[in-house]
Amino acid sequence: MILTKMLVYRGPDGGTRSETFQNTRRHKKSCRELFQNCYRVKMDQQQQAVEKEDRDNLCLPASISSPTGVENSGDPWENFQNSQSLSYWECVYLLMVTMSTVGYGDVYAKTTLGRLFMVFFILGGLAMFASYVPEIIELIGNRKKYGGSYSAVNGRKHIVVCGHITLESVSNFLKDFLHKDRDDVSVEIVFLHNISPNLELEALFKRHFTQVEFYQGSVLNPHDLARVKIESADACLILANKYCADPDAEDASNIMRVISIKNYHPKIRIITQMLQYHNKAHLLNIPSWNWKEGDDAICLAELKLGFIAQSCLAQGLSTMLANLFSMRSFIKIEEDTWQKYYLEGVANEMYTEYLSSAFVGLSFPTICELCYVKLKLLLIAIEYKSDIRESSTLINPGNHVKMQEGTLGFFIASDAKEVKRALFYCKACHDDITDPKRIKKCGCKRSKNNINGYIKSIEEEQQSAVSPKKKQRNGNTRNSPNGSPKMMRHDPLLMPGNEQIENMDVNVKKYDSTGMFHWCQSKDIEKVMLTRSEAAMTVLSGHVVVCIFGDAKSALVGLRNLVMPLRASNFHYHELKPIVFVGSLEYLKREWETLHNFPKVSILPGTPLSRADLRAVNINLCDMCVILSANQSNIDDASLQDKECILASLNIKSMQFDDSIGVLQATSQGFTLPGMDRSSPENSPVHGGLARQASITTGANVPIITELVNDSNVQFLDQDDDDDPDTELYLTQPFACGTAFAVSVLDSLMSATYFNDNILTLIRTLVTGGATPELEGLLAEENALRGGYSTPQTLANRDRCRVAQLALYDGPFADLGDGGCYDAHLNTQSHTSQCTKRYVITNPPYGFELVPSDLIFCLMQFDHNAGQSQASLSHSSHSSHSSTKKSSSVHSIPATNRTNRAKSRDSRDKQKKDLVYR
């Protein structure tokens, strides 16, 4: 018998059982059960294998992705016997010390799989790091150090300063903005510029870190404007590059900044610097630009040339005005030198303050006298509100202007605390106080009846207190030495308009459409050109010589801004000084389009470096020689920017003149200056001017004012001074004497305008001769003055104050010596030097003693009845005692001995000693 199959079945009892299929029939039931059991066992084994495989598949990724699973599982070929127990954070620590190549050895991989995992992990990490390095470098490189956002502080204002941000511009701005003489400046300054600051500028920011922050960005980007919180800023100030090669491009950049800022926040107040006057018209095209809401454009060319033009009328005025709106600390000098008195005046600034109700109803001259005598304050102007028009700034108005409640006054003082006296003054509480420092705020509440009674009493006191000598100085009873008739004071506003028109010479005396400037029909440049021989035969005296360097490619200076103040309508036609331009004809042709409507303007083609040209225009007989250059911004070396102006100045000072030449030319029969009618005695160039000094025989005595770009170049103007090259501009002799002017002094106007926008209005009114926003709109339309008919309305615009310089030894102030103020033997001591320099003293102290050689700056009212020059000067000066405020004095540089001077001074006489030119 053959065995076909043997089945061994191990039962539960562990025993075995073998059967054959030989007895199939007999064991049929038992086999069926056997197969069923085998199948069940097989299925159970397969199910267990699948579950084990699933568990292994779940553990494998964990083991590969983390050393936790690898190290805790062990190697399979080691039957998982070499595993180690590691927590999750221990494995993180292992990865960190391994990737940083430190490897302390306290924790390490023991399994082979763990070590393989570390190898692949390090290789993958290095590959990923290498791929991310360029992106990391790019992110680090693009990250700005000053790329944060400004966090506004509650209760503290901030301003945004942008534009031309350099060490020089920022230091000048911060020096004036954060000056200690200002009231508590609780304003934070945020600078925004697209270029990161250099080390010096960064150090400057760190020195003022409590009030200054810098952010890198552009005002043309709205995101950057949001970073500096422009919507909550008190103002935005835009600085210009005064030394750029293309002024028009610089102005265009600043105008774009204004457009961007106004587009982001239309209500923000913007104060911007502009280089060229004609570019101001583009600001008017911005819909949200509103000068009534505080928006201002400080045109550097307009103000610079305006300052120089006023110096042609009163030498040294540019120095005085520049020192007034610049914040300077008081420097005390014990020695009796010119610096002592000059620096005392430099410490004065211009402030505004509301006048006390005690002044309501008083006339302006009365308030001026009261402020100076009682409060030791110099009041020069007010902001007047009339029923006819909006508020306007009136400089030294006449008796017809009565003070209103809440009138704003403009004062010259050393600090803001002194000006508070005008606000706190009370007749009832402070009438018997002699020390002005004791005038403090009182709780006195005066009724309207008491105010009216006070006004009436003070007016009566002023009238009864006038002594006979003071009446003479007021022009009421003064008799001239030669027995001339009495000069009576006439109020200009009482003069009918018809009489004014009848007294006008319609053929010569014409004005522009606003009535602010003298105007004439446009003339071709060929009609005003002079050859050297023609100029030598022309009677030129008391004129203004303008030496201009420029060519066909030079940027335009804007000579119209120089001529306009000299052609203001508050001068009579015969008082206008002839203007002679000496320079390149190609350049002057480009400027002539804006000059052809002004009278008494002539051109001598040539060069200011030619002595023949200078002698042809009688440089020794001029009232002022102005030296300008249009080529200053085209030179890279800062020390060479002013080379032409310096050479021209030194050339004139080294010239020698024959005293007989001027006399011969004055009596010659040559033709007159183009535009002048020599047959009329009123058209004499010196008619109405001041008495000239002795004949000039050396160029050192020729009155000169030189424009400089680089402040340090002022040391080259005077070879005989002892100024240190590092001396600040305002401390140098040329600037103190009014013979040098630099555009950098106008930087202080930015902060001055922010704190008080009325200061810019007053300065612009003084130096521009009457330029108004309405006139700027007309110039924006036509770029030229337009003539107009003489109507009572336009003629009324002539009635405004002008600056004059009067001598103490002659003219309206000559009678001061009759009152015992000066003795004949107390004159300025004589000097052997042929040149005596004068310097400016601003607002000298109350007890300051004058000398007969001093010259006084006066704000003189317009005289409608001035027919002759001497009568005009005398008549205007008679009203000057009560309505004219003297602002400075000019003294000679060699200090005068004052030890033997008389100490007694009448208080009424001291009112004429406000500002002197000695």
Write the layout of secondary structure elements.
Blueprint: E1 7-10, E2 16-19, H1 28-65, H2 67-73, H3 88-99, H4 112-142, E3 157-163, H5 167-177, E4 187-193, H6 199-207, E5 212-216, H7 222-227, E6 235-239, H8 247-264, E7 270-274, E8 296-299, H9 300-313, H10 317-324, H11 338-346, E9 349-354, H12 364-374, E10 378-384, E11 392-395, E12 408-413, H13 416-424, H14 427-430, H15 448-464, H16 468-474, H17 497-502, E13 510-512, E14 518-519, H18 525-528, H19 532-537, E15 544-549, H20 560-566, E16 579-583, H21 585-591, E17 601-605, H22 611-616, E18 624-629, H23 643-653, H24 659-666, E19 704-708, H25 733-736, E20 740-742, H26 748-755, H27 757-768, H28 773-782, E21 787-788, H29 792-796, E22 802-807, E23 838-842, E24 855-860, H30 869-878, H31 880-883, E25 886-892, H32 907-910, E26 916-917
Helix pairs in contact: 1-2, 5-26, 9-20, 9-27, 26-27
